Amino acid sequence: MTMGSSPVSLVLLAGLLWFSDIAEAGCSESQKCCNGRDHTCSSIGWTMNRVYGTCYCDQACRSTGDCCYDYIETCPASPCVVSEWSQWSGCAEQCQPTVRVRRRHVEQEPLNHGDPCPPLEERAGCLEYMNYQGVHCGQSYGPAFISTAAYNKERRKLAAFEDKEIPGYCTEFTIESLSFHCTVENRSFARWMQYLREGYTVCVTCQPPAMNSHNHRCHGDGANDNGNIQYLDSGLIRRGQIMRTHVFQWQAVGNPQCRGTWRKVREVAECSCPIVHSFIFT
170 φ, ψ to 5°? Predict the structure, then answer.
């Protein structure tokens, strides 16, 4: 005897079909993928933790552990996309150590726990050599101003040097003292200051536009305008005798509190120090 299609069996069959449909419901079925925490961005189905009930298709579900089972496939992570860096701006102020800026913008915000956006602005120390009236002013300071060697690739040359091939030179110094502000500097554009250490030998390159157009020297290299040695006497007591050393002052462009003194070792045609100990006069 065969059982016909009774009303009870039809109800049971309909219930099984309905349960089968909702059991597989998820982000793809609801067609939802939302940013942040959105309680309306939900469905009924299995979670990624194999718990049946309300599950979510928003970005925060990865942290709360209540994503629908198909969240990763339906809502793939998309990282932040940014543009290329702009050109460096000019110095914020003329005739004094200051900063320059470059920026980039967000082209696509991160989605579904994608990688966050990186910094959109960078700053670096700089020093202009002309004021707004076109008067040269880069040689009017006491200490030697230095910056990372990478800065020399981008700074502008003075018009006086554009049509001339003037060779630069390198001065080697041994750092005698420095402020603690150098060693704790952690801003991205100024991390090079962390490599300044007492007792280390550093190389400092003199090139246009830091080079004086008249005597082809850089301010703070240990020579005055006539090319003669200039220095601050520092008395050191050694074995009962007072010895004189030629000590000069320096300051890092980008952090006026990073400063110290160094002793000139020699002057050579080209620098040979490691890149982290290679700097430029600014």
Answer: -125, 135
